[in-house]
């Protein structure tokens, strides 16, 4: 086979993989329909959308590049504080805050990316954990800027595009978050199915082989880490803008642990994993908190232990089989 | 407060950290199992001491063996039931699993004893300070230094000089070959895990006075144990020991001289060290 043939075939398979499956439309139509179907649950839906975006950001590095991060809250917090501060001191326009929040987190990701390229899994785990905790300490000690333990209060948001005003019931908030999630999802989907995305998967599966076929591993990992940080920053900015409040909680360790949990529940390396996981996690949390408000963490922990010990293969195997059946020969996984 | 007093306080703090983390240096450092729930065993030990003293009036020193035994028993049971299937799984699975355990332990402790800080009253012979060549030394800190120092020596001896130690090292290096040589690897790991958990429990009991104790303990100090092990390296017991001393002195010194920096220094030092020496400060390079 000639090189031209091969190139054409590869391009063809990339285009095929990029094509939208009917089931994917159903997911988004359902997400939009929830707007009308559950008008009382819009605040919860908004939280789900934001958490899904955060999980999507983790999926980019964990699911596609194999980087285990225990400090992803650093980027969520960076985005949230940046958006909050912009709203307080510069402009109340949400989109400006969103873009600058993303940029700030992306920058933080770019600056810290050399740190995660070194060493093994364990070193990476510790370094990301360290970065997360450093950010928490930093936000805590820069009380004049961040409000310390009290957080940023009195954030007043302007109308989105000068048209849509934030309301008490989360109507605008959910529409806003869902739109941002959708747009960034489409972008991520495009990226992971590009040659760049494929090279990431090659690095994840076998770094040695990827390196010898000419993939510049450090550059690729730094790029995806920065991208993932920017995504997390967007989630943080949405959180700050729709709740109109930022506190040290956005940088807390439990944020990093929760988002990992969400992604594991939904399945990593499968862009919809974060969305499924976020919905399951939030609904579970909401339900548990309803009958035992103080100790919901216990049940989440129990669920997690049982899930990792036995259920993970069963659940994901089931989902995968279902996806395979629905999508027929063309093969599921997007 | 003189420099020497800070140094001694720091060493005492570091000693407790070492005893707390020594079990983790075996599971994480040697067996390569990321056990973020290690602090939960320490918390169990701490609460055994607190509850025995508060509810039953048991003297402090008598609660220490109890703290060790209860935590060791908990470790043994959990190793047999939950941990063993996790050894072969990925780091990610291990992280999720042990975070789940931590969440459960924190919530269960909150439910059982409430979320307030626990205070114990030490026996009078451990209270107060005395002068050694003009340096004021806290009695309790001296007690901790002596006790933990002896424990560290015993651990080093047990690890390097005994048959148990050499079998363990063999099992860790290559479990399959060790099994082939007739070494009871499974039982060895179980005993090691139990001893490690017991030491964590003892550390938790000794640490109530120095570190404080409330249900968030496993999360609050998780990073400290991890630092001790990852910075100390994984090939010896002495690495984590010196890392713990360093950490203790740096933390106490930092809190005294630059209190506004908080834990910033510790995390910064850890990240810097890990970048410079990804395999640990005192580790020989291992591929």
TrEMBL record, chain A:
Major location (coarse): membrane
Keyword set, alphabetical order: Cell membrane, Membrane, Transmembrane, Transmembrane helix
InterPro entries: ABC_transp_permease, LivM-like
Segment forming the signal sequence: none
Subcellular location field: Cell membrane
Membrane-traversing stretches: 20-38, 50-75, 95-117, 124-145, 173-192, 261-284, 296-315
GO cellular component, one term: plasma membrane
UniProt-recorded name of the protein: Amino acid/amide ABC transporter membrane protein 2 (HAAT family)
Organism: Phreatobacter oligotrophus
UniProtKB/TrEMBL annotation, chain B:
Protein name from the UniProt record: Amino acid/amide ABC transporter membrane protein 1 (HAAT family)
Transmembrane feature ranges: 6-26, 33-54, 60-83, 95-113, 140-160, 181-202, 222-249, 256-276
Chief place where the protein resides: membrane
Record-linked InterPro entries: ABC_transp_permease, BCAA_transport_permease
UniProt-listed GO biological process terms: amino acid transport
Localization, UniProt: Cell membrane
Family: Belongs to the binding-protein-dependent transport system permease family. LivHM subfamily.
Provenance organism: Phreatobacter oligotrophus
Gene Ontology CC terms, in alphabetical order: plasma membrane
């Amino acid at each position: 086979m000639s090189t031209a043939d091969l190139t054409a075939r590869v391009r063809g398979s990339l285009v095929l993989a990029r094509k939208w499956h009917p089931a994917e439309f159903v997911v988004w139509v359902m997400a939009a329909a929830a707007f009308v179907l559950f008008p009382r649950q819009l605040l919860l839906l908004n939280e789900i959308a934001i958490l899904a975006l955060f999980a999507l950001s983790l999926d980019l590095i964990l699911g596609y590049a194999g980087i285990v991060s225990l400090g992803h809250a650093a980027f969520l917090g960076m985005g949230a504080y940046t958006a909050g501060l912009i709203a307080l001191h510069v402009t109340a326009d949400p989109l400006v805050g969103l873009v600058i929040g993303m940029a700030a987190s992306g920058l933080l990701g770019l600056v810290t990316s050399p740190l995660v390229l070194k060493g093994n899994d364990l070193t990476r785990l510790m370094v990301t954990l360290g970065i997360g905790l450093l950010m928490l300490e930093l936000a805590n000690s820069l009380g004049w800027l961040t409000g310390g333990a009290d957080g940023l209060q009195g954030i007043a948001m302007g109308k989105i595009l000068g048209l849509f005003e934030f309301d008490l019931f989360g109507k605008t908030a959910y529409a806003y978050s869902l739109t941002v999630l959708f747009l960034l999802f489409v972008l991520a989907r495009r990226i992971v199915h590009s040659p760049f995305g494929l090279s990431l998967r090659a690095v994840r599966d076998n770094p040695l082989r990827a390196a010898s076929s000419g993939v510049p591993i450090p550059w690729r990992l730094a790029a995806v880490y920065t991208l993932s940080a920017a995504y997390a920053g967007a989630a943080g900015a949405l959180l700050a803008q729709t709740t109109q409040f930022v506190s040290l909680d956005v940088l807390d360790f439990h944020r990093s642990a929760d988002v990992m949990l969400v992604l594991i529940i939904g399945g990593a390396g499968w862009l919809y994993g974060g969305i499924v996981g976020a919905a399951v996690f939030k609904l579970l949390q909401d339900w548990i908190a309803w009958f035992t408000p103080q100790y919901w963490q216990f049940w989440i922990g129990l669920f997690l232990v049982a899930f990792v010990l036995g259920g993970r293969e069963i659940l994901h195997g089931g989902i995968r089989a279902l996806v395979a059946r629905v999508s027929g020969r063309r093969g599921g996984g997007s | 407060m003189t420099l020497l007093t800070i140094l001694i306080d720091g060493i005492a703090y570091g000693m407790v950290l070492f005893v707390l983390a020594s079990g983790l240096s075996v599971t994480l450092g040697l067996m390569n199992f990321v056990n973020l729930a290690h602090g939960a065993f320490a918390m169990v030990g701490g609460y055994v001491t607190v509850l025995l003293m508060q509810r039953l009036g048991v003297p402090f020193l008598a609660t220490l063996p109890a703290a060790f035994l209860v935590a060791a028993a908990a470790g043994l049971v959990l190793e047999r039931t939950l941990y063993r299937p996790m050894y072969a799984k990925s780091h990610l699975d291990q992280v999720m699993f042990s975070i789940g355990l931590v969440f459960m332990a924190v919530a269960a402790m909150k439910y059982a004893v409430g979320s307030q800080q626990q205070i114990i009253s030490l026996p009078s012979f451990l209270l107060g300070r005395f002068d050694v060549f003009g340096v004021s030394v806290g009695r309790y800190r001296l007690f901790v230094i002596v006790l933990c120092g002896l424990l560290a020596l015993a651990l080093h001896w047990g690890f390097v000089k005994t048959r148990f130690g050499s079998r363990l090292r063999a099992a860790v290096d290559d479990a399959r070959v060790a099994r082939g040589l007739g070494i009871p690897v499974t039982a060895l790991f179980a005993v090691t895990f139990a001893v490690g958990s017991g030491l964590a429990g003892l550390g938790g009991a000794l640490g109530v006075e120095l570190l404080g104790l409330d249900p968030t303990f496993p999360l609050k100090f998780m990073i400290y144990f991890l630092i001790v092990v990852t910075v100390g390296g994984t090939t010896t017991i002495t690495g984590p020991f010196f890392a713990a001393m360093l950490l203790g002195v740096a933390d106490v010194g930092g809190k005294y001289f630059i209190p506004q920096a908080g834990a910033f220094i510790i995390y910064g030092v850890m990240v810097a060290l890990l970048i410079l020496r990804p395999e640990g400060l005192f580790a020989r390079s291992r591929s």
